[in-house]
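Components:
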Amino acid sequence: MPSGFKASGIKAGLKSSGNLDLALLLAPEGAVCAGTFTKSLVRASCVDLCIDRLKVNAGCARAVLINSGQANACTGKRGLIDSVLATSALAKRLGLDAEEVLICSTGVIGEFIPLDKLIAGLDSLVDELSEQGGSTAANAILTTDLVDKQIAYEAYLDGRLVRIGGMAKGSGMIHPDLATMLGYISCDVGVPVDLWQAMIQRVSECSFNSITVDGDTSTNDAFLAFSAGSRLENDYLDILEVGLKLVAQYLAKAIARDGEGANCLLEVRVMGSESTSAARQIARTVCSSSLVKTAVNGCDPNWGRILAAVGRSGVVFSKNDVDLFIGPFQLIQKGEPVMFDRNAVSSYMQERKRGAYLIDDSISILLKVGNGIGDATTWGCDLSDQYVRINADYTT
Amino acid sequence: MPSGFKASGIKAGLKSSGNLDLALLLAPEGAVCAGTFTKSLVRASCVDLCIDRLKVNAGCARAVLINSGQANACTGKRGLIDSVLATSALAKRLGLDAEEVLICSTGVIGEFIPLDKLIAGLDSLVDELSEQGGSTAANAILTTDLVDKQIAYEAYLDGRLVRIGGMAKGSGMIHPDLATMLGYISCDVGVPVDLWQAMIQRVSECSFNSITVDGDTSTNDAFLAFSAGSRLENDYLDILEVGLKLVAQYLAKAIARDGEGANCLLEVRVMGSESTSAARQIARTVCSSSLVKTAVNGCDPNWGRILAAVGRSGVVFSKNDVDLFIGPFQLIQKGEPVMFDRNAVSSYMQERKRGAYLIDDSISILLKVGNGIGDATTWGCDLSDQYVRINADYTT
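Structure:
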């Protein structure tokens, strides 16, 4: 883990499966934290608590407690009180103010956290804290994920080793009821809180905010990034941000790839629109279209569905400017179909769907919609009959 | 059919299946027509042609030609020329100006209409015109629809018999590539064109614009309504509009019920928001949520998914004001779960899913989100594994 950071994970008995279900990430003294959260108006009280504490403390935070099993959303006042009690009990054991401790919950909506079990587990959770604890923590935050999602990058910058670590969970913007996408980054470079918040906001936009599995947004989504350590010359901040972006995009793509019922990673890049936000709007519309996603599932180079999604995205463009590529193959030029080898495109899709490539494993759709500077990429996955079965057969 | 209107349908050989594929609707002299069309920027040139002709002629139109098999979208200049040639050839046979004839196409995107076959069929299409031709026409406009969609209402208003007829096609806002929702209304009451356009705009909002099957909007969607005949006292126009609304809603619900892979009709009503448009926005978000639709498929009263969809709809409300009902059962009161009989709610859903009721056959979700005057209803369907198979296995 980045210098000074520790983590741990334990089995507190919150999940009926008996798996790891309680995680802790501890940042060194002087840490600042920036967060981005679900925009849902039906958000869990733990999200409210994180937002309030980061605001009141001007971004100073030292620890985040993460429980999996219960989302503690739609649980009214008692849900909020439970979050306060859990963080207070942990703060006491860590010698911190309660306001320096954050909490994220993921699991079933409408269920209370079994607070006695959680609090009974805190002593061993603190005992287990270590610089090698990241992997256990990354497993303790999972719900219906098929794989854990973690990564660490390091580089020499300004004459010293710099480390960025990250972990995430989620296999949809929202799960059946096992809601929530969570992402955590720790970085052992100290960055002034205002700069850090702006960097994390930008990083979030082009990573976690650029994935879509089923278009549904969770009540509990949260991305928290801690910065703590000696500072770098300002000249190095741009390259640090590149590193943060790589970590966040790795995690975001891992979430999309692990989407419910997903067989492949879908990447949609839009260039040439008037602005980046316009490009992102088109890309998200294509990437979340049920008809595009089912075509990808069927390895069908169905450009009609892609153009139809672009057309309804709400962004203004001229259809005569549109070029469309799937992988290296051009299907549309200046708005009209060009001859292409349908079997070759379908094979390109099939190989990626069955996982023939470890690197460059995504099915890539590239759209050029004009000559503007807008450029954005989003990630998603195919829509399979397994997705429907997972979500239809799941009974609350 | 309403007095003075005629229709016909023939097999012109446009569909490889050999089914009926060319329809004609002829309105009496003096008719006016109002239309609402797809907002997609990638729209077919036949839609452009309809919009232009209605504008240039101030709503005067006499006939609409509808071909099924080819959508004639993304077909560039030749596509537009084909639409002009087809309507000119028909106008000549009907003794009309070409500008009085509209055309709608539905079928595969990117394919040209076999124009020689279409034109060769026009003589018999005109010969077949009759007051009993509505049903044949309603069948000739279908593509992958499982059932035809037609209805006629009549009433005595202002001392005379008034008739409204309607037909529609579509089993999704867009089909695999067999795109398009089409709706047609004929009414034997003459209404001044400005009033008629405003009425049809309102009728369209609460019918065709209030359904969603898969969230994808077609390149060719069109709803055309013809008015021709003697006028009514202005006092009767409100009740005429109620009739138009019933016809349009009947057709719209028939489209949702026939959604790809659908097993039931889903009705989502939102009350108490600040405006009707806000209510519609919430209702559409719930009605098109993949997670809500799969829960409906599984007959799972999963209120967490419904609230999560409300929360991300983009409309501002207080979660403490939310009441939620499925059928007659209340699940949420003032934002918090209430005790309910899960088996009873699931049975309510199961009965409607297996079609136990001919009337009141929809699975109904009612949301109250405040004390405002906003009130809107949308219709959709469940999301099934058949939907995925239909769309993934379909190869262009």
